[in-house]
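Exercise 7.
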Amino acid sequence: MSKTLIRNALLIPVDDDKPDFFFGDIMINGDLIEAIAEHPQELQEEDADKVIIGDQLIIMPGFINTHGHAAMTLFRSFADDMPLKDWLEQKIWPVEEYLTGDDVYWGTMLALAEMIRGGTTTFTDMYFFMDRVAEAAAESGIRAVLSRGLIGTGSGSEKGLSETESFADNWHGAENGRINVMLGPHAPYTCPPEFLKKVMALAAKTDLPIQIHLSETAGEVEDSLKEHGFTPPRVLDNLGFFDYPVIAAHCVHLNSDDLAILAEKNVKVAHNPGSNLKLGSGIAPVVNMLQSGIIVGLGTDGASSNNNLDMIEEMRLAALIAKGFTLNPVNVNAGTAVKMATTMGAEALSLVKTGSLKAGWKSDLIGLRCDRPHLTPMHDPVAQLVYAAAAADVDLVMADGRLLYEGGEYKTLDIDKIRAEAELCAKRLVNT
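Solution. The predicted structure, written as tokens, is:
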């Protein structure tokens, strides 16, 4: 295994046992962090195969995007300024009928290029043609948690379950554990209780976690109350759905009973502030979630409803919205926002020893240039990261010990080919 030494960088370890930030060295040995030294020059350059001078870099864990639909980059700005129901039923679902495996592959590749460029080292995906998504993830070098999207109505519901099981057999734990699989029922309003029971049976059989959209809009909650007499979280809890490890995306409209259920059942939440704002879905009660002990990660959702895959922007939105919504500037401080984008995201996705700079943990890390006007002076690097930094500041990206991006150059992707192929796919789809 090759060793890489990053020398004399400003480290943000996201580790409760370490200072919030300090200057130091970090030695990467293969897919693991071998050592971190708080005092420069402690780690020896002769022990490394590659040395990166980090004088102008902030080094931190890579961002973990806990919710998205990667190939929807093909629909970026195709259906804007619409409510979720109309957006789905009138624009997105009709076009998705024409998707091919190649479309999904190139749309995913475009998403991965954007995410890697912005410092994301782990992404979550729920979509179709998931073998092609896994191929893209394998080729790019990024860490991935993937789900075949499941709709519980219509003739394809049983096929979806069968394909999910085959997908898990082929890809769960692949690429040295870099690619893993979850079960992906879309939402309670597209997956009736009897179908969700089949998902639960598959979870029991495969021991795989579940991700699901939950309480994203007020209309979804109203419809659930009319049909079932309960809110979506209560419907799922009554089924025993939360007896399995679950990450629930959005969770915008929760009452106190819903919050208590999620906390008691250890349900993790993927908070998508940008997408929720753009679709007019509302503002998730993140402060209440965190105060209840709920693990909250951050997600971008798909590029058709965001419209970018920028985790720095999501951190900033998560912090600012929480402050404005609660009229309290203390809520969701910069340190909490960073944890939501790293360690809490890893916990939400059941990733082990990922999301923090610690010896023996996965070498998924990024470096941001700090010699920028908007990052000067550097009084508090953690606050600067959340409130002032930009995705364009990312200059170094490593996942599983492999350099994916450095100094403006992709190391694993042909960005010109990806852009050209994705453009062709997108134009064919929207003109079908």
